[in-house]
Amino acid sequence: MEFLRPASWEEALAAKAEHPSAVPIAGGTDVMVEINFDHRRPTHLMDLNRVHELHEWEIGDETVRLGASVPYSKIIDELAHELPGLALASHTVGSPQIRNRGSVGGNLGAASPAGDSHPALLAAGAEVEAESVRGTRFIPVEDFYTGVKRNALAEDELIKRVHIKKADGPQQFSKVGTRNAMVIAVCAFGIALHPETRTVRAGIGSAAPTPLRARTAEDFLGAALEEGGLWDSGRTIPPSVAREFAELCSGACNPIDDVRGSAAYRRRAVGVMARRTLGWVWESYRATGNGRTTEGGAQCA
Amino acid sequence: MRVTFTVNGRRHEADDVWEGESLLYVLRERMGLPGSKNACEQGECGSCTVRLDGEPVCACLVAAGQVEGREVVTVEGLAEYARERDGSEGRGSTGDLAPVQQAFIDAGAVQCGFCTPGLLVAADELIERNPQPTDADIREALSGNLCRCTGYEKIMDAVRLAAARADDSAPEVV
Amino acid sequence: MAPTTGPGRTPTQLDQGADTKGGVGESPLRPDGTLKVTGEFAYSSDMWHEDMLWGCTLRSPHAHAEIVSVDISEALEQPGVHAVLTYDDLPTEMKNYGLEIKDTPVLAHGRVRHHGEPVALVAADHPETARRAAAKIKVDYRELPVVHDEESALAKDAPLLHPDRDDDHARHVPHPNVVHRQPIVRGDAGAAARRADVIVTGEYEVGMQDQAFLGPESGLAVPAEDGGVDLYIATQWLHSDLRQIAPVLGLPEEKVRMTLSGVGGAFGGREDLSMQIHACLLALVTGKPVKIVYNRFESFFGHVHRHPAKLWYEHGATRDGKITHMKCRIVLDGGAYASASPAVVGNAASLSVGPYVVDDVEIEALALYTNNPPCGAMRGFGAVQACFAYEAQMDKLAAELGMDPVELRRRNAMSQGTLLPTGQAVDSPAPVAELLRRVKAMPLPLEAQWETVGGEPDVRALPGGLSNTTHGEGVVRGVGYAVGIKNVGFSEGFDDYSTARVRLEVVGGEPVAMVHTAMAEVGQGGITVHAQIARTELGVAQVTIHPADTQVGSAGSTSASRQTYVTGGAVQHVCRLVREQVLERGRERFGTYHPAWASAELLLEGGKVVTDGGEVLASLVDVLGDEPVEAEDEWRHRPTEAFDLKTGQGFGHVQYSFAAHRAVVEVDTELGLVKVVELACAQDVGKAMNPQAVEGQIQGGTVQGLGLAVMEEIVVDARAKVRNPSFTDYLIPTILDTPTIPVDVLELADEHAPYGLRGAGEAPTLSSTPAVLAAVRAATGRALPRVPVRPEHIVEV
């Protein structure tokens, strides 16, 4: 094994071009587990910690440009206003120690269906900025996940940033685990209201081979809100609509039975989380008119 | 490869480090600092918690090469670290131990002690950041540190005690 | 003798200095506390030696397979590799080890019987070199059908795990795949059933729990110039290890010198050997010190687990809530090797009725041999499984009778004098009803603690915690009770003794006692108690605890809640021998100066010899002079006897321990997630030798029971393979899963025990689990016959 320590982004891209099998390591919270347990012996480990821009973020008019290595703890502390769903999701990642090291870039690189940030990214709307010596591409996050622990990156590409839409309405995130902290998702759910476009987006994690959007459910709810004039009236969502939304979210799942949970339970739980989080974001929307709250209503910052 | 970094204020160097070695392994097996513990090596127990440039992290998940040129504080250096931070008149400082170390002994928060080093580093950082934590704050801050012996009650007592002692001995006007 | 260069780190004597106070009944600080908070305490995985090698174990990927061939040639050629060992390299005819039945191969020969069984060993100059070499060992396996439950184990054509059994149990078991079977018959359950107004039956299941001690199996073996080996190790019982290690190595026991290194928790999981023999073999073959440290993945294969169990129960009662009879059948899965299975069967059978008066019983408990992971000792040892089932039955019976579940338990609670199903009378206090009364009387925790002034919920106080699954929706509170009975010490006629050596001498002008035992301090605080006993008995402040090793006689195991009782008893006994010698010397030297020397009622207090009236006769410093006083002796508790193999009758246990819990839980009834809000415990400890430490034992045991209730299980599939050998998927409670645990300690002395104490470590692990389940049932209305309860079970999908 060789240890590569690029001092700049350009050096990193060059190294990745030269050694396509090099495994990038930033926080190490996935890669080091695989090395410690002898599950992986890459030819090269490439430390990205010296590439400063990966640890930085910029808040633009429309998006937050989040460096791939920005740790979850920074998202929780600094970006909860712009990215409330992702901040909530970040808060469910591992432990404080893991949140000080793990990053969205790492979550995307690993592309585990159970990665906590995926449903929040899907709900908010995001693009992955992938770069290689050949150039840069922007991959919509929906297209980024291609299979269990597989993603759309070419072998010479690295994730530089994730461009995440700033919240224009309330967002929520929920995750089921069989422990009250430090737990991998049995399944997870992210929801974002987008009052500017009068749309709702919903992301589901750990209930299919890849994280996915519940598009049928989104379309149904969008239409129901529109038809009922609810965006303007701010009235309560009829229970039947919430139920149908929940069922459609359950229906979007394609889960498996595994040691963490059964397929049937995952489907059920996604429905429950969909119904509840919809209730929370809508209450928040009603309460504030354009209900943007810092951590989506949960007091746990 | 060779790695050089600062541990507890002292420059350490290790040679012939295999590239897959963790910071934890290098501390324990190459630098004579086995205080950070190797309970899970997968970031799920917090026994190896150290401060890396001030941040509490699991040393088992940091590749040794990533620490080049950086600063690490382990449980072995915690008392000194707390002394420098708090001053020698120190908030709740007692002799050779950091306040949180003394509180863990006094409250009976140590049984087998394998989780203790990581908990101490995490609890010390909590009190540094949040001198008067609520019980829920303590539980959240320590939720990455497993303990199998105590049922956590005496650990809660210890952190409350350390915080209370720090508070009692704090100067009236800052 | 000893190696020319010693290890870089070794266990050290523990001194606490002259200003230390704290005899029996007080809570002095741990003598190892400072070392443990500064990171200086030398755990077995911290051992280090110049030029040491790293050992690595190659394990079977299959649960049951024939080993067709093993080719180590490529592994041996790897640079940095010093040795590769297989079965063929074992030096003597003794190729197996085992606690009671020597059925466990040091390295597999011809056949592997469980997933993760050791097949070969490598020693190399770096752990990665060793791992890479191990990966190059070519083992050709031919997979065999697995036996994984009672049906497959007892089928006509079932493969036999151990076809050539010659152990003591082989003669009386109904099938060779049954390790041991213990029936107990007392009274006439059939006739009594006819008196019952109601009868309830239930089938219950307990999953495979892991001890999940945090310090991994590890140690350092250093070859010595005399051809022997020095082993620094974490274990629960040095001498039991020694008796298993030495014959395999072909060495006399005195050439295997063992020193206890820091033990990172045990809970039963270190009662069997893990890497001890492997490290010694590699050290002796290479002539170099060898260190082995399991990682967490390997640790799950490196020790036995709690027996998973299936339990069938029938209870009857009259309308007024008096239990008429009990029938039960308990099937424990012992896995591939016997380990402690026979003793676990004895416990499960003899304690299967719980702390209740039931005169008419029919009981059967047995342990199977299967290809599942070997199971053995874990805190609670057979009593945990039974308690989960009989306490569920009590609630079921109460519901059937329309009676309060605590009232039902009270009406049937055993007390001093009650006969157990074994015919043995409980001859010390058994305050079962009082313990229940006490937990019930504790104030209930506040409702809806997640509600905050700002109106936004604090999710940390809700089911799901930080995962933000509910803001109160679907959350229902439930309250449940349970009580249990655990035996203390080794039972069934085992010669359960301990040895202590105590020396009293003047050091630096002060009298100092040195206590030397082989007791494994695994975190429980036995060394603190030894120092307390020495202070109380010898009237000194300074006590030095000698490292535990095999240079002194056996202390028995740190298990069965026995160490404070038995090794504590030995320390007390030997301190008294020392005191007699001191007084004798005092009489010789100073007897003529004061008539009180002739009195028998002299005490050692505050460093002086005093009369029972408090008059000082001499200082210990003057009595001792330059000559230390030393004594060593064994100490035993009352003998027990084996259970009759057909009727189960017999004086099998020496003491009992009782605890009761009240659990308050909040359940998200839509997601099936549980938040335990409070787990109140009342326990009789006879005498709180160290109140702070005994509370720590009770709280720790309580949380292990909580873990079994709601999350902890090693999942083994139908091919007998372990699915979750990691802390990512084998979950133990975090501090956010753990409630407040108010503890009410009773001290009703047992006149048979030193200081009246009662072993305390295990009882809280028993009743915690069923109390939590009772509370979850109360919140959900579900039957929930299995632990750990999973969200799927609560929401029934």
UniProtKB/TrEMBL annotation, chain A:
Signal sequence annotation: none
Oxidoreductase recorded as keyword: yes
PROSITE patterns reported in the protein's UniProt record: FAD_PCMH (PS51387)
Entries under InterPro entries matching the protein: CO_DH_flav_C, CO_DH_flav_C_dom_sf, Diverse_Substr_Oxidored, FAD-bd_PCMH, FAD-bd_PCMH-like_sf, FAD-bd_PCMH_sub1, FAD-bd_PCMH_sub2, Mopterin_DH_FAD-bd
Stretches assigned to the FAD-binding PCMH-type domain: 1-169
Keyword tags: FAD, Flavoprotein, Oxidoreductase
A Pfam family reported for this protein in Swiss-Prot or TrEMBL: CO_deh_flav_C
Protein name: Xanthine dehydrogenase family protein subunit M
Automatic annotation (TrEMBL), chain B:
Domain 2Fe-2S ferredoxin-type intervals: 1-78
Keywords: 2Fe-2S, Iron, Iron-sulfur, Metal-binding, Oxidoreductase
InterPro entries: 2Fe-2S-bd, 2Fe-2S-bd_dom_sf, 2Fe-2S_ferredoxin-like_sf, 2Fe-2S_ferredoxin-type, 2Fe2S_fd_BS, Beta-grasp_dom_sf, Diverse_Oxidoreductases
Name of this chain's protein: (2Fe-2S)-binding protein
Automatic annotation (TrEMBL), chain C:
Keyword Iron-sulfur: no
A Pfam entry, by short name: Ald_Xan_dh_C
UniProt keyword Oxidoreductase present: yes
Chain ranges of the Aldehyde oxidase/xanthine dehydrogenase a/b hammerhead domain: 38-145
Transmembrane portions of the chain: none
EC number: 1.17.1.4
EC category: oxidoreductase
UniProtKB keywords: Oxidoreductase
InterPro entries hit by this protein: Ald_Oxase/Xan_DH_a/b (IPR000674), Ald_Oxase/Xan_DH_a/b_sf (IPR036856), Ald_Oxase/xanthine_DH-like (IPR016208), AldOxase/xan_DH_MoCoBD1 (IPR008274), AldOxase/xan_DH_MoCoBD2 (IPR046867), AldOxase/xan_DH_Mopterin-bd_sf (IPR037165), Xanthine_dehydrogenase_dsu (IPR017609)
Spans annotated as Disordered: 1-33
SMART domains attached to this UniProt entry: Ald_Xan_dh_C
Entry GO MF terms: xanthine dehydrogenase activity
Superkingdom classification of source: Bacteria
Protein known as: Xanthine dehydrogenase subunit D
